[in-house]
Design goal:
six-stranded mixed β-sheet, single chain, alpha/beta, 17 helices, Aldehyde Dehydrogenase, Chain A, domain 1, seven-stranded mixed β-sheet, globular, about 20% strand, Aldehyde Dehydrogenase, Chain A, domain 2
């Protein structure tokens, strides 16, 4: 692959940073360096802020139908370049090409939903509050927002933030992960292709010093993040001190619960997709599998057999199931958790370390499916987010037992139950202490029309991403109280008109 020197996209121009440090960009499937990414300077970051701030006044007053035309054009351009966008994700993020295509397709769906902004951001009107007084709530844009993306979903997080933010009239500065910047390099070209006005979206690369220039900056309005909970908490504090609006999605520890009436034909493919899709590197990945005693032993037998059948290799290979994890550091961290699981007494029934790989991928960052049994809720591997293909199997006494376990953990992102019993399903929906619930699905990601986000330490803030929540976060409510009084002389004019004998009715006299 051609070596790529990543550039910033500011004021509609691709700008190469000079006199700053560059970090290497790798293809995780092979370990090959394929580019380098700038750790941009504070000066460049402030230039991006100035650009978005300058663009805001004209963009917010652009008629709504014209802003929607840009979103429609963006959607069509993504359709036209769908395969190039998917390949960019499969190369630097190493998400399997089939999943990368699915991620791009989901963003197109999000754009289609965002094109419904004229309906979603309509305000409210209340007549007759008092004599001649009406009330109105108007939803308006806020200003300049900044967004920080994780490595694992470079396209999806773009879709969560940018279409909604700019659709309602804000401008946006986006910082991709230094580990997966290629998708946004493609999107910058699309912005120019559709003629998006300069400064409406700026793209800047770097480390935490970039959002560090936003918190106290009077030209910035709010900050968005998808990342770890510790990072989200630090950003929440900084946004609070700076008076910035914030929407911060953090970590997760998600449960798949198998009841005694589990349908194995439904459970096993959902288990594989949930636990090993994206190599376990997503916020809704299945991490703990909890089973009642009646099916516990059979569940272990079935998931180990299925896990052994997961093929690994280059993310661009359509014949494999799972690609690598993002980096050598991530691989080492996952293997550290495997060691901790062994040390704390859980049983390692399937070890994903040192998997068999094609020769071309020997230097890639691979961890195979890993399964622990005899895991208890107090074990580290049952509590902390591993962000890899490591599954902890836990025996539960029943539904109330697992509901209590989920309730006591710090995270509250997703939880899924597999059952044919409507009572179990409804009780789980009502009482599972998580923001997103699945019934007989392994990845409980809401469709674009509905809000996405967890609770507890998985989500800091009030509004979630997508749907009407996305509109609410990126807008402010302005309330108008309107007294309507007749102009001077109105009553006399009415009397004069009524005394006029001229016929104006369409009814025959």
């Amino acid at each position: 692959m051609e070596f790529t020197r990543i550039k910033n996209f500011i004021d509609g121009e691709w700008l190469e940073e000079t006199d700053v440090k560059y970090v290497p960009l790798f293809n995780p499937s092979t370990g090959e360096q394929i580019g380098e990414v700038p750790l941009s300077s504070e000066k460049t970051s402030l230039a991006a802020v100035d650009s978005s701030h300058a663009a805001y006044d004209s963009w917010k007053w652009l008629p709504l139908n014209k802003r929607m035309a840009y979103l429609f054009d963006m959607r069509q351009a993504m359709i036209n370049h769908k395969e190039d966008l998917a390949v960019s994700i499969a190369v630097d993020q190493a998400k399997h090409i089939s999943e990368a295509r699915g991620e791009v397709e989901r963003v197109i769906q999000i754009l289609e939903t965002a094109c419904n902004i004229p309906t979603l951001m309509q305000g409210e009107h209340l007549d007759g509050i008092a004599n001649n007084i009406n009330g109105r709530v108007v939803k308006q844009s806020l200003g300049v927002f900044g967004g920080v993306a994780p490595f694992n979903f470079p396209a999806l997080v773009f879709g969560w933030f940018i279409p909604y933010a700019i659709g309602v009239g804000n401008t946006f500065i986006y910082k991709p992960s230094t580990q997966s910047p290629l998708f946004m390099q493609k999107m910058g070209d699309i912005f120019n292709e559709i003629g998006l006005p300069k400064g409406v979206v700026n793209i800047i690369h770097g480390n935490r010093s970039i959002p560090g220039t936003w918190y106290q900056n009077p030209k910035m309005t709010g900050v968005c993040l998808v990342g770890s909970t510790p990072t989200a908490k630090k950003m929440a504090e900084a946004c609070g001190r700076g008076g910035k609006r914030s929407m911060l999605l953090g970590g997760a520890k998600n449960y798949l619960v198998a009841m005694e009436d589990v349908d194995w034909d439904v459970f096993i493919p959902n288990f594989l997709h949930s636990c090993y899709g994206s190599a376990g590197q997503r916020c809704l990945a299945g991490s703990v599998v909890a089973a009642v005693p009646k099916v516990y032993d059979e569940l272990i037998e079935r998931i180990v057999e299925a896990s052994k059948g997961v093929t690994m290799g280059d993310a661009m290979d359509p014949d494999i199931y799972m690609g690598p994890v993002i980096s050598a550091k991530a691989k080492a961290n996952i293997e550290k958790y495997i060691e901790i699981g062994i040390e704390q007494g859980s049983t390692l029934v399937l070890d994903g370390r040192n998997p068999q790989l094609p020769e071309a991928n020997k230097n890639g960052y691979f961890v195979g499916p890993t399964v622990f049994t005899d895991v208890t809720p107090c074990r580290t591997i049952a509590k902390e987010e591993i962000f890899g293909p490591v599954v902890s199997v836990m025996k539960i006494s029943g539904l109330d037992d697992v509901l209590n376990i989920i309730r006591e953990q710090e995270f509250g992102n997703g939880a899924c139950i597999f059952t044919q019993n409507q009572f179990y399903a409804e009780k789980f929906i009502q009482e599972a202490d998580a923001g997103m619930i699945g019934v007989n699905v392994g990845v409980c990601a809401p469709h674009p029309y509905l809000p996405f986000g967890g609770i507890k330490d998985s989500h800091l803030g009030t509004d979630k991403v997508q749907g009407k929540d996305g509109i609410d976060f990126f807008t402010q409510n302005k309330v108008a109280t309107i007294r309507i009084a007749p102009p001077a002389g109105y009553e006399e004019k009415s009397i004069e008109t009524s005394s006029n004998n001229s016929v104006r009715s369409c009814v025959a006299q």
